[in-house]
Design goal:
CATH topology of the largest domain: Methylamine Dehydrogenase, Chain H
Shape: globular
InterPro entries: Galactose-bd-like_sf, HAF_rpt
Strand content: over 45%
Keywords: Signal
Radius of gyration: 22 Å
Protein name: HAF family extracellular repeat protein
Largest sheet: 5 strands, mixed
CATH superfamily of the largest domain: YVTN repeat-like/Quinoprotein amine dehydrogenase
Helix content: under 10%
Length: about 500
């Protein structure tokens, strides 16, 4: 194992109930859940299930219960690194006490599979898992020399290197629903296996770049050198880099003047979490942070209730509900944590008969009632499309928003305050639209789909003063279609 014993804690999804309009602003942005001592959380899915480690074993928390995922037969330690919405887990486990770690997969029921193959000493790691259970990570080559090389582990039990020659790519770190993969040495494996090098923050070839994760919108995060060996967290639009050769990413900075920061995870709304670490002794302790689109990185310690005693040091996962996991100190001891926004609402627009994505509530087009709905009933204009062309279930369903009239609007009851709102518009089967969608009068989605890109998405920060968040058709829209919306309180 790369570290001795890693075990994890996970957590039950906590949904924040709407607060009456006009209520006072909450004292903090997040509530915090202690997932236990001697533990660290590494990932979280949209169902709110968290994975990581506790002591020497991989652990997940589901439905309020901590579950020990165990080890390989004969092994002593394991760690869970990622979990998909189906409950499949990627991680690492040894085959004998004190031995090397090998990539493993846990099924949703908890059965463990050794992905490392028959050769001994080919140590490796499984870092990420897509919605279908395909895992990416890395292993040493057959001669057992050098560092792990980027590898994909298919669901049929086969595996393959991601590059030719294999040593082009360091171990893979992330995979999104489109099958696009990030690697530790700053590449994205693009459509058809094309390699896209993510640029640094300066116009210098050879600047060190790392990539840690990629979201469904092909935004990636990691870190890059800013000079004198100092690194900052970065957000890239990998699609722009691949298609237009965008020169640099967005420097997300750091917190409290700490020299080094790195982005470790991001969600569909474009929120990024990470860690700022001085990387020296004796120095200030590391600090976990979150970055909001259009904003700055903020230490998570400042966003939880005062007086909790927590020092949040590492943020390692975030889901599309805005929940964040990681590890910190509580009473001087290492504990895993889960942060849940005091308000979030995640809604899928779909026919009543369609499967509801994990973590989402279904809106089937009914007129406004009980805090959510349309100005005029739009239920006959929901659609379910075939899976082909849709990254996941959220993109298979939609509602036509300009029916029964172009003035139709959708509203959600929320406490007055500021919100980060992510909107996805599109149709996996058609490109006959011009998407223009406003949230609280702010144009949030604007674009025309193409055969290469059927979906147009956007994120905006808005302020609600009347107790209802309003989504409307913006001027110039043609055949507007809405897939889903994420609303996260700030």
């Amino acid at each position: 194992m790369p570290e001795s014993a890693l075990s994890a804690a996970a957590a039950l999804l906590l949904l924040a109930a709407p607060v009456p309009a006009g209520a006072a602003a909450p004292p903090s942005r997040y509530t915090i859940t202690d997932l236990g001592a001697d533990s660290g959380a590494t990932g979280i899915n949209n169902a709110g299930v968290v994975v990581g480690y506790r002591g020497a074993h991989a652990v997940k928390w589901a439905s309020g219960t901590a579950v020990d995922l165990g080890t390989l037969p004969g092994g002593a330690s394991s760690v869970a690194n990622a979990i998909n919405d189906a409950g499949q887990v990627a991680g690492t486990a040894d085959r004998s006490p004190g031995g090397y770690g090998y990539p493993v997969r846990w099924s949703a029921s908890g059965a463990i599979t050794d992905l490392g193959g028959p050769l001994a000493n080919r140590l490796g790691v499984a870092n990420a898992v897509d919605g279908g259970g395909r895992i990416v990570g890395g292993q040493r080559p057959a001669d057992s020399e050098g560092s792990p090389l980027a590898t994909v582990y298919e669901t049929d039990g086969t595996s393959r290197y991601l590059a030719d020659p294999p040593d082009t790519l360091a171990a893979a770190t992330g995979i999104n629903a489109l099958g696009h993969i990030t690697t530790g040495n700053g590449y994205v494996v693009w459509d058809g296996g094309t390699l896209v090098k993510l640029p640094g923050l300066r116009y210098f070839d050879g600047d060190p770049v790392t990539a840690a994760a990629i979201n469904v919108r092909d935004q990636a995060t990691g870190s890059a050198d800013i000079g004198d060996g100092v690194t900052h967290a970065v957000l890239w639009d990998a699609r722009d880099v691949a298609e237009h050769g965008a020169p640099i990413g967005t420097d997300l900075g750091t917190v409290d003047g700490i020299a080094h920061s790195t982005g470790t995870a991001l969600n569909a709304a474009g929120q990024v979490v990470g860690t700022a670490d001085p990387m020296c002794q004796p120095c200030a302790a590391p600090k976990a942070w979150v970055w909001q689109p259009g904003g700055t990185a903020t230490a998570l310690d400042t966003l939880i209730p005062a007086g909790t005693g927590w020092q949040l040091q590492q943020a390692t996962g975030i889901n599309d509900l805005g929940q964040i996991v990681g590890r910190g100190l509580l009473g001087g001891h290492v504990h895993a944590f889960l942060l849940t926004p005091r308000f979030h609402a995640n809604v899928s627009f779909q026919p009543a008969t369609a499967a509801v994505p994990a973590g989402y509530a279904a809106d089937t087009g009914a007129a406004y009632a009980a805090g959510r709905g349309w100005a005029a009933d739009d239920s006959t204009w929901t659609r379910l499309r075939p899976a082909a062309g849709a990254p996941d279930q959220r993109y298979r369903t939609l509602i036509h928003t300009q029916h029964p009239t172009g003035a139709n609007v959708w509203e959600l009851a929320v406490p007055n305050g500021r919100y980060l709102v992510h909107v996805a518009a599109g149709d996996p089967g058609y490109t006959d639209s011009v998407y223009r969608i406003a949230v609280e009068g702010t144009l949030t989605v604007t674009g025309t789909p193409t055969t290469a890109h059927h979906f147009v998405e956007g994120t905006a920060t808005v302020t609600v003063t009347d107790g209802r968040l309003t989504v409307s058709n913006a001027a110039g829209a043609t055949n507007n279609k809405l897939n889903y919306i994420d609303v996260i309180g700030l």
